[in-house]
Amino acid sequence: MNCSCSQSDHVQRSRRLGDESGTPYATLSADELQRVAEILRANGALDETHRIAYIGLDEPDRAEVTAGRSVPRRARVQLLDVDNGRARALSVDLGSGTLAKDVDIDPDHDGQVPLLQEEHGIIRELIGADERWATALAARGIDDPSTVALAGLSAGRYPIEGERGRRLARVLGHHQPTPQTMPWAHPIDGLVAYVDLASRTVVDVIDTGVMPIPQETGDYHVPGTFGPERTTQKPIVIRQPEGPSFSFDGDVISWEKWSLRIGYDMREGLILHGIGFEDDGRVRPIVHRASIAEMLVPYGDPGPVRFWQNYFDTGEYLLGRLVNSLELGCDCVGDITYLDVPIADARGDVKVLPNAICIHEEDAGVLWKHTEQFTGTSDVRRQRRLVISFFVTVGNYDYGFYWYLYLDGKIEFEAKATGLVFTAAYDERTSRFASELAPGLAAPYHQHLFCARLDMAVDDGPAVIDEVDVGALPIDDDNLHGSAIGFTKTRLRSEQEGRRRANATVDRTWRVSSATAKNRLGRPTSYVLTPEGKPVLLAQPESVIASRARFATSDLWVTAYDPDERYPAGDVVNQSAPEQGLPAFVADDASLDGADLVLWHTFGLTHFPRTEDWPIMPVDTCGFTLKPHDFFDRNPTLDVPASPTACACAHEDTDAARTEHHLHHLSVRPSSHHG
Ligand code: CU
Q1: Nearest Cα residue to 106 out of 90, 77, 86, 76
Q2: Would you tell me which of 28, 39, 109, 435 could form a disulfide with 609, CB atoms 3.0–4.6 Å apart?
Q3: Alpha-carbon distance values, 7 to 1, 237, 298, 358 (Å)
Q4: Per-residue pLDDT tens over the stretch 395-440
């Protein structure tokens, strides 16, 4: 049968996030952001020398909201005085127009606020005028420093003479002889500059010796560079003639039995609030709040030019503000709802990030299926999922953050890593720590580690958490042949016990159960976190990066909810002191028994680049799932109707098609009892 779906048009619907007020977890609206800036100015906190490094909703205490108390509407702000490099953390009360909190950020104890966009301009100015840098470039055959693309990078916190307490960036260069040239193909190795952003000085230019600049082009973006385009692809068309099956009420989306509030933050990006599933006429809470609260890209080249290369893309670079404006038909296909996100820039002017969040519904293959020999019946239902996603570009890399909700109660998160690998020159030394991707071009080994913060609310109320491992049962009188299998359940009773490693060989999962709610068989209602169990941070435990990213050394941490515990590497991450965030949160070893539980799950990719990753890397993925376990009384999708057979898009349910379908049924009738 020939489906001739000629209407290949995609559908775009647009909404703006945060256009409602009075709801505790609603994203700050454009008006509210404006008001925050006004209050800051009125209180003398935001003037010509001050910049907003971060602004976001100061989320109220979960317990206060649950108890139905009225909570103040507040914004959290980090300010930087660009004249002296001093920074402050504030809480701005929108109702009273006052500063509810105003404290100094101690560069020694806390670290530095994230790099501002304008500081990249300062870096270009300073480096462009530096003679040491120009001399080093000339030694490499580059006479014009303006033909070098500069990457201003977070400095980390290393025991380097004179660095403590200074606001720093480190700078690497790539040759870009023409504006069209893809510079990552031409790393200028053996050369790095250290810049003090507060005093506006180039502190040091380190030239460890000339290395040849790889010359082969990486210009995949120029048509024809790597040969002609293939001509073999026929169109794939997705149609939803009646629109998508979801609807919005403010920022709350309802789809099938799911409902949740969508939020956005310039640091974390997408935030999902109040994820619940309707069951028997009531919405049952599952997750109070879900986000990817930190992301780390540690590099494994210990050489003098790159030993410090570790990026906290969330805490240091605020990946949420680096969001792409997605394009219909390219980034997203089908019937797409885009959410625009209001954001305040460094001077408090409100901008809107258009098409920042992409929401759509898609077919997800078979949901369940059975052909039964005894009844002669054959049933199949199709799975579908709600996709809520955004994409960011952080320098050379691009990351997609995809949340999937399925009909059967499963929640899945998938990170997509693509873009360009960070490059170096390939020689005998780097060959130990990097792959060669093109002649003379190296890509150092590295990891991409994500930390999900999952503030759980399984059937609301108090919860407990167990680690579940599977295995064989011992041979005994009841198990004579040794074939019995079972599982062991270990209760994690305190925050110290809640620090766990994954173990795929025993199918290790972590089960969060309600301490009170039970299913019809009397079992606690639960959701299970299934990790992929790939490596977490590989650097040595005593390394600088492990001390600053301790969260990433375990697959799981569990904490009793505390409204001040937001980020796994701490509130301030740029040049942060060791052991911030999770190690500090669990220091009191609070009880997890019957608490509101927060799961902190680190997962990621360990990337030994392949030649196939050059000149642009095909998407690689990692993630985790949360699945109901004894949460529903039975398969919650028995009410999913069968899909129309044959060619739905052409509405051609012809006699011939029906006959063919009928014959197919006949052919699977039982012939034996041993199917
Ligand atoms: Cu990578």
Answers
A1: 86
A2: 435
A3: 18, 8, 47, 22
A4: 999 999 999 999 999 999 999 999 999 999 999 999 999 999 999 9
Active site residue 562: no
In this structure, the dihedral spanned by the alpha carbons of residues 318, 320, 325 and 331, taken in order and rounded to 10 degrees, is 110
Which pLDDT band, with edges at 50, 70 and 90, does 334 fall under?
Answer: confident
How far apart CA 198 and CA 81 sit, in angstroms, is 9
What tokens does 360 get?
Answer: 């759509």
For the chain, helix, strand, coil in percent to 5 are 15, 40, 45
118 closest CA partner among 342, 389, 349, 300: 349
Find out whether 340 and 15 touch, Cβ atoms under 8 Å.
Answer: yes
How far apart are the CA of 410 and the centre of ligand 1, in A?
Answer: 28
- Catalytic-labelled residue, pool 58, 265, 301, 313: 313
Give CA–CA dist 213/537, Å, rounded.
Answer: 31
Distance separating alpha carbons of residues 298 and 281, to the nearest angstrom: 47
Active site residue 299: no
Do the Cβ atoms of 249 and 20 come closer than 8 Å? Answer: no
Q: 546 pairs with which residues across the strands?
A: none
pLDDT digits (tens, 9 = 90+) for 588-646: 999 999 999 999 999 999 999 999 999 999 999 999 999 999 999 999 999 999 998 76
